[in-house]
Structure formats: C-alpha cells, structure tokens
Amino acid sequence: MSRRLVLLLAATCAVVVGNVYFPQAVGPLVAAGLGVSAGSAALVATAAQAGYAAGILLLAPLADRLPNRRLMVVLLVCTGVGLFAAGCAPALGPLLVAGVFVGGSTVAGQVAVPMAVGLVPAERRGAMTGTLLSGSIGGMLLARAFGGMLGEWLGWRAPYLVAAVLSLLLAVVLACALPEVVPRRRGRWSAPPVEALRLLRAEPELRRSCFYQAAVFAGFSAVWTCLALLLAGPAYGLGARAVGVLALVGGVTMFCTPVAGRLVDRYGADPVNLVCMVGGLASAGVLAAGAGGGASGMAALVAGTLLLDIAMQSGMVANQARVFALRADARGRLNTAYMACAFLGGGAGSWTGAEVYARAGWPGVCALAALLCGLALARHLVAVHGARARRGRAAPPGQ
C-alpha cells in the first residue's frame, strides 16, 4: 500500500470521527442557544455516539459485500446532508434526530480500517491499525478544539455547517483518488445485526475485546462529556473554548498509537491491554483532583485527560489487532461487532456521566470512570489467569 493512500485513509478517519466528537465541546453553547438545560444539551453528544454505534452495526458490514470506494463516498454525502440539517435545527428535538443520522452515516472510517488491514502482511497489522487510529485521534482532538472555538466565535450552528462542507469535499476527493476494492462475496448473507450477534457468540476473543473497549470507552466518554460542564461551572468559569484547548493537549496520543501498534506486533495484545487498563484506572484518581479549580486543578485535568486518552486509544489498537486476527474473510463484520459494542458503551457513558454529574458532581464522574476501568482490568486478569491455567494443563508432564 502506498504512503499516499495510507495518508488519505488516515485523513478520512480524522474527518468522520471528528463529526462524532465535536458535539462534546458545544453542549453549553447549545443549551444557551436553544434555551434548554445543560444536562439536556449534553444529549447531543449521546445522540451522535448512539447513531455511530447504529451505523457501525447496520452499514459498516457492507464493506464485506460492496465496493469500498463507492460505499465510502455515499456515506460521506449522507453525513454532509445530516450535518447541514443539524446546523439548521430550530429546536433540541430536531437537532438530536439529525445528530443520530449524522452518527449513523459517518462510518466511512470503519470501512477504511479493515480494508487497509487486509492489504498489509500479518506482522504489520498492529502498526497499520495504530497509524489509522492516529488519524482518528487527530480528527477527534481537532474537532473538539474546532467545535469549541468556532462555536464561541460564530455560535453553535457554525461547527455543524463547516463540518458539512468538509464531509462533502472529502467525498469528492475519495471519488477521484481512492482505488476501488471489491470484496469477495462468500457464503450466505444475513442481516448485519444477526451477523454481529453470530460472531459475538462464536468468538470468545471478540467478546473479550468488546467488553474491554466498551467499559474503558464509557469512562472516557463520561469524562469528556462532563468536562465541559465542569469548566463552565463555578469552579473554573470558563467557556467552550477551554474544552477545545484542553483537548489539544491530547495530541500526544497521535504519536503513541503507532508505537502501541508496533508493541502489539512484537509482544501481543494482552500486555498492551494490561498497561492501558492500569493507566485508565490511574487517570481517574488524577482527574478527581481537578474538582477544586485553580491552577493545581487545571494541571490535574490536563494530566488526567492526557493519561486517559493514551490509555483508551492504545488499548483500542490492541483490541482491534486481536479482533482482526480472528477471521480474514470477515474483518468488516468483526469490526462492526467490536465497534458497535464500543460506541454503545460510549453512548451509555455519556448519558450516565451526565446523570452522575447532576447528582454527585465531578468526583462522581471520576468514580464512575474508575469503576468502569476497574471492571475491564478485572476481566482481563481473569482471562490471562485462565489462559495460563489452560497452558499449564496442556503442557507435557515434567515440563
């Protein structure tokens, strides 16, 4: 695969993932602009993530059946239309409906990743996954900064309208530059949800990876959804721009995921998962120190969000490498099952985080993130212990 094609696919991942994340930074602006509560406005992030999970479940599996370039272009056009509708929404209800549609159609990156992994040797899958995820991280971080800064400058509608233009422009570029990849059509084809459930039932390693990512990503989403509420509250008194600036600190993660991919290729997914889960658990303690405000509180938020970002994204590289190694003929559907679980966890985390914040404030959100990362870590330790026990029973006597 040429370097130019890799960069184009990474840019695609950046643009489409950004459409899911910039609503996290504009929640307070939506609340003020539409005259709704901050908790209600936080649902714009939940709607995008829930729609993304639905799109991964229903549309991304088509990568195993339809020409990939054509599929990606159609999805991006639909995304652009949905973003335009969101930017023109007269009330919160239509905005949430448009947000679900945008999330559902902005899954072109989930077509690109399994396609790219299938074009490289097995010993480079982790590195390829890490590189494309680096593009997604860049899009995520720039989208938060873009959403917060542009929203404060021109109003909450501006990020949606500008994102619509970007999506439509990318559709044109892909239509002209991306080579057509036609998947082999093998076996019977069931409805995508049935395919995902079938794979989840048949593949224990898929179930394990799904649980890891759903739990950690739920904690991650809870933190970032409520961070805007914390910074806009009395402890800091800052605007949406502060969320965008804080998100830029996580740019370090872009350089960490390719490294994580190479480590997965060298040592396997389990050791990388272990380090990432411990890092996610530790980040919750660091973030809790940010509740009091002031310079020390802001330093804790910077350090904690950076550690959480690195842990979540590097763990995702390990999980996807494990999933893609299971079946070469079903990578699109395997990725569908995995990402649907992950983003359902993210949507649940955003909603739960907002509810917890309303009742227990920032310390409650940090406790929620710690609980979720702790559950993933406990499941991982059980799995590793079970694997060692099975290897011990299988070893010949005397060895």
Explain this structure:
With 399 residues, this protein is mainly α. It contains 16 helices and no strands. It has helices at residues 3-21, 23-34, 38-41, 43-58, 68-87, 92-105, 108-117, 125-154, 157-177, 192-202, 204-232, 240-249, 253-267, 269-288, 294-324, 331-394. Helix 4 runs parallel beside helix 6 (92-105), helix 8 crosses helix 15 (294-324) and helix 11 runs antiparallel to helix 15 (294-324). The longest helix has 64 residues, at 331-394. The termini are far apart. The mean pLDDT is 85.
Could you say which structural class the secondary elements and strand pairing correspond to?
mainly alpha
How is the biggest beta sheet arranged?
A: none
Number of discrete helical segments: 16
The low-confidence parts are: none
Q: What's the mean pLDDT score?
A: 85
Task: Tally the beta strands.
Answer: 0
* Percent of residues in β-strands: under 5%
Choose one word for the global shape. Answer: globular
Mind telling me the C-alpha Rg?
20 Å
The percent of residues in helical segments reads over 70%
Distance between the termini: 44 Å
The succession of helices and strands, N to C, reads HHHHHHHHHHHHHHHH
